[in-house]
Design a protein that fits this description.
Strand content: 15-25%
Distance between the termini: 36 Å
Radius of gyration: 23 Å
Order of helices and strands: HHHEHEEEHHHEHEEEHEHHE
Number of strands: 10
Oligomer: single chain
Strand order of the largest sheet: 4-3-5-2-6-1-9-10
Shape: globular
Length: about 350
């Protein structure tokens, strides 16, 4: 975890404050260091709070008495901040259409992420805890925030534009999670979904986030070199809708951060959904800039996670295996991803096979 192996040296009487905590024991706290990695559940939270409070007072005393150089104070404050705001970031990688987003929806118990049996996720999407639901867009090239959508405060114009775009995209991308918000069957060929068919409310922040991710994260052929007339029309509609939300024309590579309120994220878990490996979505020149391939987006983003879940659809064979091998063969990635063997394999759709199947 982010706080793992973080130690704060305690050499003053402030240690007594920690010792007064009933959770103190010699195997968890010592005079020389404090390590909360072995604690569990509420006990860990209480002990963590005690360590943070004591550490904060120690730093204040050090600053007032000039006991440590400023550089040292900054490092100690950073360590305390990590203890106070620990997170564990799990990246979900795998073959295209392997079920990554569906698994994430199951974990957060809501149909938030766009799902489809075709290439779906086109960007790195990070889910973090937040009481208020919001969707933030970060330009990967400039590292600047280009859109910060408060899903509780959205105009009716923007809400209607999101619904309209979702319906416009359906002919080329059957977005399965939208089935939860309409009585119309979206799986019947030739079905035309209208905005009025969507049972979604402008005052429901979860609905806004679902629609925003259809716009910002769903793949409708952006990387295709030869676009059909239908896809070109939808992509133009997408650009028009993104401009309405203030996203500059120059922003073509971006990451998405979604603040979401659920117990799993509240406990410090961060979930990162990544584009599928092996998808036919390579680099593309867009107005003189390079739109990254899905494989490159995933290879870069996976460096930032603490562990990686690799999901393989057992009904599709070897689609993303080559890309996965290339990704894990990188020495840099081995240091980040494989340290401690933190790779979690998941075989999806095993229920489609009999017990004796290979």
């Amino acid at each position: 975890m982010k706080y793992k192996d973080t130690r704060i040296d305690v050499t003053t009487n402030e240690l007594d404050e920690i010792k007064t905590n009933p959770l103190y024991s010699s195997n968890l706290l010592s005079k020389d260091s404090v390590n909360i990695d072995n604690c569990k559940g509420n006990k860990m939270d209480e002990l963590q709070a005690a360590v943070v409070n004591a550490g904060t007072k120690i730093v204040k005393s050090m600053e007032e008495n000039n006991l440590v150089e400023q550089g040292g104070v900054i490092k100690i404050k950073q360590a305390i901040n990590e203890l106070d705001h620990y997170t564990y970031n799990i990246g979900f990688a795998g073959e295209q259409s392997g079920g990554k987003s569906t698994v994430i929806n199951s974990l957060i118990q809501y149909p938030l992420m766009p799902t489809c049996n075709l290439t779906t996720t086109s960007n790195c999407v990070k889910l973090v805890y937040g009481k208020k639901i919001r969707v933030t867009i970060i330009d990967d090239d400039t590292k600047k925030c280009v859109c910060d959508l408060d899903c509780e405060k959205i105009s009716n114009e923007k809400f209607c534009s999101l619904k309209e775009y979702a319906c416009t995209a359906m002919p080329v991308l059957v977005i399965e999670n939208m089935n939860y918000f309409t009585e119309q069957s979206i799986f019947v060929g030739g079905t035309s979904l209208q905005s009025s068919d969507l049972d979604m409310d402008v005052h429901n922040s979860k609905h806004i986030a679902v629609l925003a991710l259809v716009l910002f994260a769903a793949y409708i052929g952006q990387n295709d070199l030869n676009l059909t007339a239908e896809k070109e029309k939808i992509i133009e509609k997408r650009k028009e809708t993104m401009r309405l939300f203030g996203i500059p024309k120059e922003t073509i590579n971006y990451s998405i951060i979604v603040q979401w309120d659920c117990e799993l994220l509240k406990k410090g878990l961060v979930i990162t959904d990544l584009p599928g490996l092996g998808a036919y979505a390579g680099e593309k020149n867009v107005d003189g800039k390079t739109l990254k391939s899905h494989d490159d987006i995933t290879r870069e983003a996976i460096q930032e996670v603490d562990a990686m879940v690799f999901i393989e659809d057992c009904t599709v064979k070897d689609v993303g295996v080559r890309a996965l091998r290339e990704m894990l063969s990188s020495t840099k990635l081995k240091e980040v991803v494989n340290k401690g063997n933190r790779v979690i394999p998941i075989l999806n759709k095993v229920d489609l096979f009999g017990r004796n199947s290979d």
